[in-house]
Amino acid sequence: MTDLERLDSLKVALGGDILEITNPARRRIFLTVDRAKIASVLTALRDRLGITYVSTISGLDAGDAFEILYHLAEAAHGNVNVRIKIPKADPHVASVTPVLPGAIFYERELQDMFGLVIDGLPDPRPLITSDDWPAGNYPLRKDWKFERPAEIIPGGKK
């Protein structure tokens, strides 16, 4: 299957749900969709095109919004990356674990590192941060400030 055929099959499967589609390199396709449609888009990719493997979900603090990329892989389509934007003022997104169960750990990581609220997440416990991690501290946000206590830094200020 050529990249043009891949793009066409995605356009047919997803129709008006695609806000933007690009093909920056061979067998690499990027789709931008509305965050409210993420579960339905991933369901369509799974059911219509057989794309079932989520290799990771990555996030980026883009200033006034978060960009979340769902990295999917499938032999016939190559890498399909689905991008959504989530405003910081309303950091909610629906869990996609009912569609792709393997996404649960990545969604828990997004909660810990960015402070996103993953609505409907079956297991919302912290994945990376400790149980006593200070509330409101999200290490992958650009505005996060971490000050290491002096007693931890040998020879540090006291």
Determine the N-to-C terminus distance.
Answer: 64 Å
Order of helices and strands: HEEHEEEEHE
How many structural domains are formed by the residues?
Answer: 1
Proportion of helical residues: 10-25%
Number of helices: 3
Average pLDDT for all residues: 90
Shape: elongated
Instruction: Give a quick account of the main beta sheet: strands, pairing sense, barrel closure.
Output: 5 strands, mixed
Total strands = 7
The CATH architecture would be 2-Layer Sandwich
Which regions contain 5 or more consecutive residues with pLDDT less than 50?
Answer: none
CATH fold assignment? Beta Polymerase, domain 2
Broad structural category: alpha/beta
- Rounded to an integer in angstroms, the radius of gyration calculated over CA atoms is 18 Å
